[in-house]
Amino acid sequence: MAEQHYDFFASVIKSFDKAAKFTKWEQGLLEQIKACNSIYSMRFPVKMDDGRIEVIEAYRVQHSHHKSPCKGGIRFSDEVNQDEVMALAALMTYKCAIVNVPFGGGKGGIKINPKKYSVYELEKITRRYTSELVKKNFIGPGIDVPAPDYGTGAREMAWIVDTYTSLKPGEIDAAGCVTGKPVTQGGVRGRTEATGLGVFYGLREVCNMVEVMKRLNLPIGVEGKKVVVQGLGNVGYHSAIFFQRAGAKIVALAEYEGSIYSEEGLDVDAVFNHRKSTGSILNFPGAKNFNKNTDALEMECDILIPAALENVINGENAPRVKAKIIGEAANGPLTPEADEIFIKKGTLVVPDMYLNAGGVTVSYFEWLKNLSHVRYGRMEKRFTENLNTHILGQIESLTGKNVEQKERAFIMHGPEEADLVHSGLEETMITATREIMDYWHSNNEIPDMRTAAYVVAINKVGTSYAELGIFP
């Protein structure tokens, strides 16, 4: 397993180097952008419920300080190691740069399987990890702001903010030390579905590009497209749901226990509930079972969305993948060998480093909310509703016609926090997609969209360093 994670970090470097030759920056600066600035590897003891002491292995990596604070999730997984955390921190730097979120990249990990610990044990581990970060100045609203990742969620973030606040009494912006918190603890509405919704917005924009669809021999738009989603976690579930609502057909779903397929399309919520009650997506009524979860990756479809773990599509299985568009909802689901195969096949790979940036974009909105100490929409919601009601009344009075009830409710609606968050995310993903595509199409030598995304990221980080005067 360690070999696989090493490959993951090496693949980030490989992709970086491939893109670096299309930039103007000198080698020294490129080496600085590539390097992880700070790596904190720690071991600490925690007393378990049965009285024994367990030594926990954990990490926090700050990849780049070209912007402050650093930003990136914390994952709880048996597979956590330094190489993996370094790779994910590096991807965060490039991701934030592409979507114009002013953070440096960071990442954290605790090497545990959370399913094997009680809630109280997890709380003790999380709080101790937080206190270790505070001790070494590796957390803070202006220093390094963690978030949820694989194996963690709002509960763990609440423990982190509570521990941080107790160790830093009176710090007025303490809530901004971590994002992905429960709304009651300073979280933002719209965060849960953010990454999946961002994946949808990014792929929808690609599907609306006439030239791109023409080249792939596909019709414009999302409606009617056949979609396969691997992984029914938070990101995969929400990606599938938003595609389904937009009129796409979810023909296959995969989880670690296997995969299911239906030419007619699957109801995502029904599959989700089936899994909840039976413990498996297999044997879903009206669907065909595949024993191997990887079989779904090779099904006939228009869009394939790997939303699980890294390196699931590699040099071995890439030749059998039939999708015309692959949207990387997970971090690093394709190896560099798979990339080369898809370039030759003419498959469009929409890269993870910006496509799954919905989480960090909305985390940025949450951080801003914590620093401003006011909920989005509080200042303008009633004003907008009153203004729209007045305009609607004037239109009806002048025309002598009444607007139907459904339209009336839509026009009069003042924005809630979630509406503003979703709107900001939509703007971010559309702008980033267009920027990468424009750069790619303006340079015929750039082989794929991933390389174009890296070039955009390297240029933005390089410009930051140059403007700081660090590298004149």
Question: What's a quick, concise take on this entry?
Answer:
Helices cover 47% and strands 14% of the residues. It is an alpha/beta fold.
Detailed description of the structure:
With 472 residues, the chain is an alpha/beta fold. 47% of the residues lie in helices and 14% in strands. The chain has three domains: 36-185, Rossmann fold (3-Layer(aba) Sandwich); 194-355, NAD(P)-binding Rossmann-like Domain (Rossmann fold, 3-Layer(aba) Sandwich), CATH 3.40.50; 358-468, Rossmann fold (3-Layer(aba) Sandwich), CATH 3.40.50. The protein contains 16 helices and twelve strands. Helix 6 crosses helix 8 (234-245) and helix 6 packs across helix 15.
Question: What's the topology here?
Answer:
Blueprint: H1 2-20, H2 27-34, E1 38-47, E2 53-62, E3 70-76, H3 82-98, E4 104-110, H4 119-135, E5 144-148, H5 154-167, H6 194-207, H7 210-216, E6 226-230, H8 234-245, E7 249-255, E8 258-261, H9 268-278, E9 288-290, E10 303-306, E11 325-327, H10 336-345, E12 348-350, H11 352-355, H12 358-372, H13 381-399, H14 405-412, H15 417-442, H16 449-468
Parallel strand pairs: 3-4, 3-5, 6-7, 6-10, 10-11, 11-12
Antiparallel strand pairs: 1-2, 2-4, 7-8, 8-9
Helix pairs in contact: 1-3, 1-16, 3-16, 4-5, 6-8, 6-12, 6-15, 12-15, 15-16
